């Protein structure tokens, strides 16, 4: 199965990333932390998968030139619109499955990614839920409108995505619940304290 892994990633611009950590960290320190987290996510994906793409908010930013992976433009619209557009493009480009990752789970174990990829042989959608109500990965074996009408950045993201999946009569699998690094206590829990 030709799997395209697409990592949604912001450029590490002070004041624009990891803003919930600002206060404990300066905007510059938070941007450096984001850079380290994103690098860990990208490098892990490159170790595990053959077709990895970085979907950037600013593809021309120098941060993205440091990776041996094509950089795509996220484009305009809410997160769902951007992911839908990238998904359609990947399937048009010959992908047989697409997996989206964010950069808030640098502590994710490799086995979680491999488990998700393996489940795509049995299910049409695989979700990796996290404790705040979102997900750290979603993977699909066909282009489906699962990202519509989602209340992004709320605790209802997974619930509403599953509603869409069920409404489309797609089979799906849920991984064990993980967590994102959003707050200072998450850094400690993930082993990223003092990063």
Automatic annotation (TrEMBL):
Name by which UniProt lists this protein: Glycosyltransferase
InterPro entries from the UniProt entry: Nucleotide-diphossugar_trans, Trfase_1_rSAM/seldom-assoc
Pfam families: DUF2064
Naturally occurring in which organism (per UniProt): Mariprofundus aestuarium
Gene3D superfamilies given in the database record: Spore Coat Polysaccharide Biosynthesis Protein SpsA, Chain A (3.90.550.10)
